[in-house]
Amino acid sequence: RLADTAKFAVAYPDGLGRAWNAGGGCCGRSAADGVDDVGFVAAAVSDIARQVDVDLKRVYATGISNGGMMTYALACRTALFAAIGPDSATQLDPCPAPRPTAVLHIHGTADTRIRYDGGRGEGFAHIDGPSVPAVNTFWRNVDQCAVPAVTVDGSVTTSAAECADGRGVTLMTVDGGGHEWPGFATDRLWQFFAAHPAK
């Protein structure tokens, strides 16, 4: 519905067996078989751009859980995306050569599958990654950001940093939030994406 009202194109690619090879051994058959999901998504973007009038400076990726982890892999291994919006996710890819990318990460402090403070999570995948604040710091360094401004609105604490070349790195922490897509996420992600085209 938001795509219809805000007038942007949206694609919903599927990973093999409902999983993406997001690096770091995650997840499912895609990781076990070494599926090139980064290549697949890049090819999908290229194919869509051939058929639809797409502004290639305004290409974004978002996802929850393994899908959010995949957005980090895309930012680490391609230069296609102006911004990413991972939710309830972490970064397992070591990302040795990251591309400057705007990032809005949303995460609940009570997420037991991908723990906010890092470490081994519950569920079949037992994701064992860095803390969410550590990932946020990594991308603030990549994007050459200023000290973030912190605001609190009810249960949501937002740490927003302005960065070089108009990029931004924002972390929205939901106090008591679980492994879920918060009700505010879709609108907030689109606002962030719309404000951060590639330079």
Structure, described:
The strands form 2 sheets. The chain has a 6-stranded mixed sheet, sandwiched between helices. A two-stranded antiparallel sheet has the order 4-5. A hairpin with a 7-residue loop joins strand 4 and strand 5. It is an alpha/beta fold and 199 residues long. It is globular and about 45 Å long. The protein contains 6 helices and 8 strands, in the order αααβαββββαβββα. Helix 3 packs across helix 4. The longest helix is centred in the first third of the chain and has 15 residues.
> What does the largest sheet look like?
6 strands, mixed
What sort of overall outline do the alpha carbons produce when their principal axes are compared? globular
* Helix count, DSSP H or I runs of 4 or more residues: 6
| Strand order within the widest beta sheet | 1-2-3-8-7-6
Derived structural class: alpha/beta
N-to-C span = 28 Å
| H/E topology pattern | HHHEHEEEEHEEEH
Which stretches are poorly predicted, pLDDT < 50 over at least 5 residues? none
Residue-averaged pLDDT = 95
Helix content: 25-40%
Rg computed from alpha carbons, rounded to a whole number of angstroms = 16 Å
**Beta-strand percentage?**
15-25%
- According to DSSP, the number of beta strands is 8
